[in-house]
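Input/output pair, single chain:
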Amino acid sequence: MIPAMPATATSSRQARRTVKARPSLQARRVSSAALRFGRLAAMGAVAVLILIAGVWGSWGSAQYVMLTKGRERGTVEVTRCGADTCTGPYTPLSSGSPARERVVIEHTAAVRKGQTYTVVVKPGTGEVVRSGPAGVLYSWVPMGGALLLASVVVAGGLRRTRVAWVLAGSGVALLTAAFVTI
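Output:
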C-alpha cells in the first residue's frame, strides 16, 4: 500500500499557484488606471508642445506686425524677386522713418512683383514684414497649422472629440482667413 499525501498540503500549494498566476481585480484596475493616466499625460504634453511650437513659429514675425507702436511703418514697392526674397524701395509713413532705396521682404505667396504693400521695418535691419490685416493673419499661419495638428492628437490620444473639433475649426478658420486676405 502506498501512503497517501495529506490533502491539505496539495490544496495549499495549488492555492498559492492560483494567486501567483492571476493578479487580483484591484491590481488590474490600478494598472489600467496608471496606463490611462500615462497616456493622457503623454498625449496632453504632446498637444501642448505642438501649440507652443505654433506660437513660437508665429511670434517671430507677428510681434513686429501686432506691436507697431514706435516702429517704422511705410510702404514697399516690390521691384525684384529672387528665390527667397524680394526687394524694392521703402517709402515711410511714420514720422522719423527715413526713406530707403532698398529693403528686403520674404518672397512668399503674399508678395508679388510690381505690387505695393504696407510694411513694418524690423528694428536694426533692412528687412520688412507685411502689416495690416493681411500681415497679421499671414504671420499666424504656423499657429493655424499647429491647431490642426494638435486637434488630431487631442482626438486620437486624449479622445476629446469636441475639443478636437474646436481646435480644428479654429485652425481652418485662421488658415482660410489668411488665404482670403492675402
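Residues 42 and 157 are 9 Å apart (CA to CA). The mean pLDDT is 87.
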